[in-house]
Amino acid sequence: MDRFEAMRTFAKVVETGSFTKAAQALHISRTRATHLVQQLEAHLRVSLLNRTTRKVSLTSAGALYVERVQQLLTDLDNTERDLAHVLALPAGRLRVDVPSSLASRVLVPALPSFYQRYPDIQLDMGVGDKAVDLLDESVDCVVRGGPIQDQALVARRVGSLRLAIYAAPAYLKRCGTPVHPTELDSSQHSVVGYLWEHQNKPFPYALRRHKESVVVRGCSGLAVNDGNAYLAAGEAGLGLVCLPDYLANAAVQENRLVALFADWSMDPMPLHVAFHRNKHTNVRLRAFIEWVGELLAPLS
């Protein structure tokens, strides 16, 4: 016997005064309603209803029991309604860590829309490209570009970033404008390195044009581990840089950088929100992941 279903059926019979009407209201058969109440009476070892051909009425035990059942059902309905409200409007503190350039140019400027949707979430945002230990630093999640290496983490892909090679006009005037990516491996050119947190060394850049594929390592006199510093190095003419569109667009429009190799393409950089498995039920985290995914969609 499903005791909850039996209690709800019994309460509905009392409310409507009829097994037939109760069955219709609950979208079950009259036979099913009758059996449920009979099973409930057998479980309680007491008669709850007086039955005649014309109507049903409560026994003294039934009158006592139905009062408690109705209160229990009301409390349960209220609890479910309150829970739905909590899930719809997450509240409390969420601690996140995000890359510096993504924070300053994308996430922070868009936070008014986040707070309009989730006014009861307190967001503590750590900003930087350095690796973060989610347990030691009590961080709920991190936003990172590239693959997530830590197998203890769950990674949710929230977007991808289009990439291209850029150089400052002053650099091109000094060193010349390369017309083929293989020129970047010569001593004539310098490529600013970006130190990825999980390798602490620059990655080679892969470019493709039709069936031709080139991997560029480049000669580097400078490598940094911060997106804003990497952009600044490119604008200062310290070497060529590989940047996502969102980070390079303003610099290109203001002629601080020039895009190179227009007929070549690069694989986009995946963006992930990563968190420990025991955080998957955190409604604040789910809300943040959904918002970040919507925000980054136009950048993909």
Task: Outline the structure in words.
The protein has 300 residues and is an alpha/beta fold. The chain has three domains: 3-88, Winged helix-like DNA-binding domain superfamily/Winged helix DNA-binding domain (Arc Repressor Mutant, subunit A), CATH 1.10.10.10; 92-161 and 270-299, D-Maltodextrin-Binding Protein, domain 2, CATH 3.40.190; 163-267, Periplasmic binding protein-like II (D-Maltodextrin-Binding Protein, domain 2, 3-Layer(aba) Sandwich), CATH 3.40.190. 41% of the residues lie in helices and 23% in strands. Strands 4-3-5-14-6 form a five-stranded mixed β-sheet, with helices on one face. A three-stranded antiparallel β-sheet has the order 12-7-13. A two-stranded antiparallel ribbon has the order 1-2. β3, α5 and β4 (121-127) form a beta-alpha-beta unit. α1 packs across α3 (30-44) and α1 crosses α4 (60-88). The radius of gyration is 32 Å and the shape is rod-shaped. The two termini are 53 Å apart. InterPro entries: LysR-type_TF_proteobact-type, LysR_HTH_N, LysR_subst-bd, WH-like_DNA-bd_sf, WH_DNA-bd_sf.
List the helices and strands and how they pair.
Blueprint: H1 3-16, H2 19-26, H3 30-44, E1 49-51, E2 56-58, H4 60-88, E3 92-98, H5 100-117, E4 121-127, E5 141-145, E6 153-161, E7 163-167, H6 169-175, E8 193-194, E9 205-209, E10 212-216, E11 223-224, H7 227-235, E12 241-244, H8 245-253, E13 258-260, E14 269-276, H9 283-296
